[in-house]
Amino acid sequence: xxxxxxxxxxxxxxxxxxxxxxxxxxxxxxxxxxxxxxxxxxxxxxxxxxxxxxxxxxxxxxxxxxxxxxxxxxxxxxxxxxxxxxxxxxxxxxxxxxxxxxxxxxxxxxxxxxxxxx
Amino acid sequence: xxxxxxxxxxxxxxxxxxxxxxxxxxxxxxxxxxxxxxxxxxxxxxxxxxxxxxxxxxxxxxxxxxxxxxxxxxxxxxxxxxxxxxxxxxxxxxxxxxxxxxxxxxxxxxxxxxxxxx
DNA sequence: CAGATCGTGTACTATGTAGTACATACTCTA
DNA sequence: TAGAGTATGTACTACATAGTACACGATCTG
Lengths: 118, 118
What we know:
The structure is a homodimer.
Chain A: H1 4-17, H2 25-32, H3 36-43, H4 52-62, H5 66-72, H6 78-86, H7 88-98, H8 103-114
Helix pairs in contact in A: 2-3, 4-5, 6-7
The structure holds a DNA duplex.
């Protein structure tokens, strides 16, 4: 485990801090509902990433995509898991089929479904 | 939680047992690598479902779809999670888009990708 | 009817998850 | 130069996960 999650969070937070002093470990920790020492450890990779709820709050705080931050933490959003669990065969087949497809292929499907004639 | 996992497993195992005496709690437990008392508790919903690896072994043993059994256990196969984590935005968008689509729509996509002109 | 096999009850445990609480030392800044 | 704010080190904890170990009484079988 290369602990890219912590590095990423620290990087984004410090960048935001350059123009906004409220992005200290203490204040961000307080806003997402954890102790500063814990956030500090997380950012330095000394503690594993926090729970899904805290990660989502952190993403909102940092202006990042929650799904991306969750992915860096080695997690998948529980609402996506719920969708898959409701129709496991169908979604398992689809996801495995798309596993090695290029981004543009997946994106094409997304658009096809979104504004398609269904 | 209505513990449908345990009920399902017990049902399948007992059905198989009618024609094959080796499908006792003890022997199946031994084959999937857990203690009989644990499998017994799981089947009666007194213990939560086992780990992913044991569930997959159990599915193989019972001739059931691993993804379905995992879903009943409230889990999503870790290999699917890995696929999603590699491209979180893309897959999150696709899955959320398909959340309320009928089975046939999803199935159409699967086939489109499988034997499509990509 | 003895021995094997069966399901299950009870007690226990190791590891991981998700943090808190508090103290300490550093660094701006008014 | 005092005090406000800052990051981090140390120690601890509650709860969940994923089981094992062993004994017991019931039942089946040769």
